[in-house]
Amino acid sequence: MRLKKSVIAVVFFFLAILFFSCADNLGEKKNRKVFASDVVEGKKLASVYCQSCHLLPEPSLLDAKTWLNGVFPVMGPRLGIFEHEKKSYPYSKYDLELGKDFYPAKPMLTDDQWQQIIDYYTFLAPDSLQSKQSRKYPIKNDTSLFTPRVATFKYYSPSVSFVKIDTSRKDKPVIIADAVKNRLYRFDKNLKLVDSAHTKSPIVDILSSKSSEWISCNIGMLSPNNGKYGSVRKISFHQNGKLKEDTAKLFDGLQRPVQVLQADINRDGKEDYVVCEFGFLTGALSWMENKGNGKFIRHVLRSLPGAIKCYISDENNDGLPDLWVLFAQGEEGVFLFTNQGNGNFSQKELIRFPPVYGSSYFELDDFNNDGFKDILYTCGDNADYSAILKPYHGVYIFLNDGKNNFQQKYFFPVNGCYKAVAKDFDNDGDLDIASIAHFADYQRQPEEGFVYLENKGNFDFVPQSLPAAQNGRWLTMDAGDFDQDGYTDLLLGNFSIAPSFIKSKVDWKKAPPFLLLKNKGKKK
Questions:
Q1: Which one of 208, 288, 314, 433 is at 20 to 30 Å from 388 when CA atoms are compared?
Q2: Residues 205-223: pLDDT tens digits?
Q3: Left, alpha or beta for 267 (phi > 0: left; psi -120 to 50: alpha)?
Q4: SS3 for 86?
Q5: Helices H, strands E: what count in the chain?
């Protein structure tokens, strides 16, 4: 169970009394005695050393076993601790792509101090997290709004890393990319395969700049790594309209880029690019200055990993493009980068999240029609060091007070939530929400894989799902009017390859690569 701040304060008051009286033994954890003085000191140390890199997480966010065996063996090396209690920590000390100065040359803490931090977290952490979410309404199967459609084209073990409803093409509206096969596919309005092309590496984003040319974001190596193998390339079309990826790249040397955007950042009349370099242990938010003649110079705005989603807008009406960016991977949060001119930016933290949240996506939407951008946010990345179901994973809405200060207004729990989009799907004048979960509770709650939240007003959303949407493991989703009938449809991409701890009654590898949810429109 997650502890509230007031409860934690009481706990530490109790611990302080014990410490100043006789430092009594509090009990045992993992066959070792834990004392009040160690727990109190461990909290002080954590607030200094752990909080120096990210928001200080509460012990209640994970169970004791996960803290001990999952998190600390990874965090220790960040403080120069590569062994504890005669156990070596797994780390990337000899990863040549990190650089020799990434880890401290010597420990920043003594062995006893490191144990005190461990005692603080493992003693106050629960034995297990709350397994049942608190929902106002259960998720019910309802097919009244969406009709599922699948392509006749199927292949074994789809690993779809990108999907798009291309509203600019009536004849070829569906685009998908497969990360393992390194192929890009196009489908017509009957979901018949009409074209495909080989790509240099997995495509995870496409910028449709012109009808005769796309800009693709190639991640390089999909699995976590610290290399600079990513690139941004042009995808052009032959005279017959067939896809062709240009062999020449716009620029490369990027750390697992996941999104590319186009804007004239320094107002010199040439289109520049903003790139979210998600990376792994290292990464960056950067922009590529267009110097003309195919030359670009990389400028780093924030040299931390986890940049996963960016929006460009002129927030202060000064004619310069500003950036809203979500960072995951440790220092998690939403940040506003305000363009100061000449390619310089100031940075403001808008919302900050604990490093175990697994931030996965956000949107800017106006939910209360006050003219200010609110934030729709999801967290649910569960592939790293704390791969357990978490009751705080799901869909959040944060309201803007008009000055870019945000307060949480709504939360809907979804295990392993990966993305949510807000659209007026039923055309009743308010924003509904569609979400997917890549790390859902597939054994007990397979309906979490896709959830449609129908807006009933006053932030009351009724959850629905479809049986057909439980046949895939959805990594990507796009919303758009597939057949241009005035209703917003959904496209889900199946990434069937799963780690061993993910269990399901469905064989995703035999499922179609994508699922189209055709919006029938709500009957008045």
A1: 433
A2: 999 765 678 999 999 999 9
A3: left
A4: coil
A5: 5, 33
